[in-house]
Design brief:
Blueprint (H helix, E strand, L loop, with lengths): L1 H7 L16 H6 L2 H10 L28 E3 L5 H8 L7 E4 L5 H18 L3 E5 L11 H11 L4 E6 L9 E6 L3 H11 L13
Parallel strand pairs: 2-3
Antiparallel strand pairs: 1-4, 3-5, 4-5
């Protein structure tokens, strides 16, 4: 069979011109490296296989419009408390500006910010995410921030900021009381709990 094949191919000459080299395996994968990293981060894995402590997703999230108003409260949050948050009546204890950051960078900053807020027992936060009206994907960062807040158990209420704090380009966030704050409240007000009024927050 080999001799017959050689005889049949004896008059065949190689094509002129340059031969195309096969693409190395490393180069073929280079184009999808960012996708793989994003996929692993979304699953909560680092490149070394360790568990990523940051639970905030990098996967696709429901898209919002630049002027959409964010408004949500957990069951048990009083209507008066939510209204005061909406109107910016609570002192802002911590703020975070995400302008000009990528989604990946913002994810890391939001995670660090809420870790700091828990450590300091902050209750009311302001996150400036922008509206993204001129972005290739409008409100992209805003959409991610809104979804990330739904992934953080400490968040009990949120509302797009009042105009003086950024309007629909920012969001006011209320966190639940830390164990330390609850203990201080019990010590201050006794076993009967705290007085229920407009300043009483969950």
């Amino acid at each position: 069979m080999d001799e017959e094949f050689r005889e049949a191919m004896g008059d065949v000459a190689p094509l002129a011109g340059k031969r195309q080299k096969a693409t190395p395996e490393s180069q073929r994968k280079e184009a999808t490296a960012a996708q793989l990293e994003r996929r692993e981060a979304a699953l909560g894995n680092t490149s070394r296989g360790a568990v990523d402590p940051n639970p905030l997703t990098l996967g696709e999230v429901p898209p919002l419009e630049p002027t959409d108003v964010l408004a949500w409260k957990k069951d048990g949050v009083q209507r008066e408390v939510f209204q005061r948050l909406k109107n910016g009546k609570y002192p802002i204890e911590g703020s975070l500006d995400l302008h000009r950051l990528t989604v990946k960078e913002a994810r890391a900053e939001v995670f660090r910010f809420f870790s700091l807020a828990r450590a300091k027992s902050w209750r009311t936060l302001l996150i400036a995410h922008g509206r993204g009206e001129k972005s290739a994907t409008p409100a992209r960062l805003k959409s991610y921030v809104a979804f990330w807040l739904s992934q953080i158990p400490d968040v009990i209420a949120l509302h797009s900021a009042d105009p003086r704090h950024g309007g629909t380009g920012a969001v006011l966030v209320m966190l639940k009381k830390s164990p330390r704050a609850k203990a201080e409240a019990r010590e201050r007000y006794g076993l009967k709990g705290e007085p229920r009024n407009d300043s009483d927050r969950c």
